């Protein structure tokens, strides 16, 4: 061990410094996020009003309307996906615990975080749980966990999503699937997570602006300029 450390001292030192630098970066980002969140929660309305006041007067109403629509959709999606993820995790955790599958709590946490990727995350997490059940308990328990994938998928698709998220995110399932795949291709797991809320917010803003434009009163056409009477020499 001592000879290995002595011969690879430089590589180990570089790895330690690089790892420490990444830890410092993550802690800095976390501290900045918490610091900014406190001010946004405390005075977000005043900051938004100040921002809108800096815009040209003709654009203030439309920007304010778009901002309110975007925030309403984003908060609705966030609350809904948290409730769906927590429900899925509880169902999975309880089922795996009573089936005697090992690592029930870590698998339930995996299901919680995987639920943030619509349509794809939950089946992938439950597929991992099925592999664990097959290795630990045999094919019968694995088949039960596999059936659990179908049951939870039906509960999520036909009960939780329509009741919890339909009012906040009015997107066709095909649009959701394409958004998730496109986000995953563009930015990996992070892209898959943020794709649906990004598309939902964009669609909500478009609908709000379109409805505002349709409800706005039509301005009368401008009157033609008065004719100038020609003089006797005209």
Give a structural overview.
By secondary structure, this protein is mostly helical. The chain has a domain at 58-214. The chain has 7 helices and no strands. Helix 3 runs antiparallel to helix 4 (104-114). The longest helix has 45 residues, at 9-53. The chain is flat. It starts with a helix and ends in a 19-residue tail after the last helix.
What labels would you give this structure?
single chain; 234 residues; mainly alpha
Strand content of the residues, in percent? under 5%
Number of strands: 0
Structural class designation: mainly alpha
Largest sheet: none
Taken in chain order, the helices and strands follow as: HHHHHHH
pLDDT under 50 segments (min length 5)?
A: none
Count of DSSP helices? Answer: 7
Shape: flat
Distance between the termini: 111 Å
Mean pLDDT: 80
| Quaternary organisation of the protein chains | single chain
Helix content: over 70%
Radius of gyration: 28 Å
Short summary:
This protein has 234 residues and is mainly α. The protein has a domain at 58-214.
Question: What's the SSE blueprint?
Answer:
Blueprint: H1 2-7, H2 9-53, H3 57-99, H4 104-114, H5 121-137, H6 139-165, H7 173-215
Helix pairs in contact: 2-3, 3-4, 3-6, 3-7, 4-5, 5-6
